[in-house]
Amino acid sequence: MADKYDVIVIGGGPGGYVAAIRCAQLGYNTACIEKRVNKQDQPALGGTCLNVGCIPSKALLDSSWKYHEAEHALAEHGVGVGKLTLDLDTMQQRKDKVVQQLTGGVASLFKSNKVTWLQGSGQLKANKQVQFSPLDGDEQSLEAEHVILAAGSVPVDIPVAEVDQKIIVDSTGALEFDSVPKKLGVIGAGIIGLELGSVWARLGSEVKVLEAVDTFLPTVDRQIGKEAFKLFSKQGLDIHLGARVTGTKKNKNSVRVTYSYDGEEHEETFDRLIVAVGRRPYTEGLLSQDAGVTMDERNYVYVDSQCRTDVPGVYAIGDLVRGPALAHKAIEEGVMVADVIAGEHTQVNYDAVPGVIYTHPEVAWVGKTEEEVKDSGEPYKTGAVPFAANGRALAAGEPGGLVKFVVDEKTDRVLGMHILGPQASELIQQGVVAMEFGASIEDLQLMVFGHPSLSETVHEAALATDYKAIHVAQRRRKK
């Protein structure tokens, strides 16, 4: 007789563990299957994000920025630090402590919400049967009224740079260096490549980023992307666009990389090479042939707007399905599915999902870019104001970047918000709230913003869409 649950969630990452907790809160007997074992050789919840992604990378980004500030910025504030030293081992231990605290917190939440944590892997079979293979013990057959697939994603491999997690590493290996590489190569100038490249550049690496695409951050608003390229280049990231890696050859302590760039073949030797060319859905072993779940040609699970698969009672969320591979998107999908199971009509607003790159300055966006709106042919207006015009940014020594709005000229509705600058990850939420509530740009123009604050740049950018900005000179665009 198979063990039976109301809900079985396969995957304990941000989407999966949140879905499991929400289902349990709604009164369902819920189990969550997760196979991850952490570097301490202990079972761990939290998926890629908490263990080897979002959280540890942010810990290193923050630690490395403090080192960078001490080395380059504190003196102008009148703060002397004497001889600066770097204890990378302590920095890594702090990162690991943060990870353990958060993953342990999820385990405690499971306990308090009475979610059964099944440590091992799960495979969906026909008729919502789940084959559970424990980390320790015999296989078990489980069944449920509802199954939520939340297996996440893994880094994309490329044949020309085979990862060994020693000399050539993926995003996981790039978090575990025991010394600062003198020369570091990064394949891919996307979110992961830029963030990890920034960490090691701040700590002293000479970093070269090789990006096959000719446009820097092609999905980001072009005005923001161009300005970000300038700022990151000034920080020491040597970014080569249109550079396609054609081969690698590893030596004992280095790797020789060949790549085509600007019509010529080039060759360079690095101490370490990070492969950061994107992520793909992790579907290996997830579905039996008779499971009935449809996938597309790229192995994404096909779902409707509320994450239902073709099999009644089976849902898929997060990196397994369409849309950006973002932890917060997975989390909200997990909550939505739990509510749908309970008979509610919750819907994620996919038009208002923010994106963030945690470089310094940060890059953040929500909604449509100017290019997308322009291509639609609909009349629009924009307003952009630099942080150099903001008193709080100047006082903090953070004058780089800008805030930009894209607005429907007919309805005055906010279509998109784009930020390059200090605390962009926090400021972007003002745009998310505005879009979620269908705000007009006039609503933002009429609000009172605290002074001095970084948010005043949001206010000025809103005003700038109608040539009302106070603290920057504006020239009316020609009709």
Automatic annotation (TrEMBL):
Cofactor, how bound (note): Binds 1 FAD per subunit.
Entry protein name: Dihydrolipoyl dehydrogenase
Occurrences of domain Pyridine nucleotide-disulphide oxidoreductase dimerisation (ranges): 353-462
What does the UniProt keyword field contain? Cytoplasm, Disulfide bond, FAD, Flavoprotein, NAD, Oxidoreductase, Redox-active center
Q: Which EC number(s) does UniProt give?
A: 1.8.1.4
EC class, as a word, reads: oxidoreductase
Into which family does the record put it? Belongs to the class-I pyridine nucleotide-disulfide oxidoreductase family.
Q: Where in the cell is it found?
A: Cytoplasm
Required cofactor(s): FAD
Which reaction is the catalytic activity of this chain? N(6)-[(R)-dihydrolipoyl]-L-lysyl-[protein] + NAD(+) = N(6)-[(R)-lipoyl]-L-lysyl-[protein] + NADH + H(+)
Keyword RNA-binding included in the entry's annotation: no
User: What additional remark is attached to this entry?
Assistant: The active site is a redox-active disulfide bond.
**Keyword Ribosomal protein among record annotations:** no
Its main subcellular localisation, reduced to a broad class, is cytoplasm
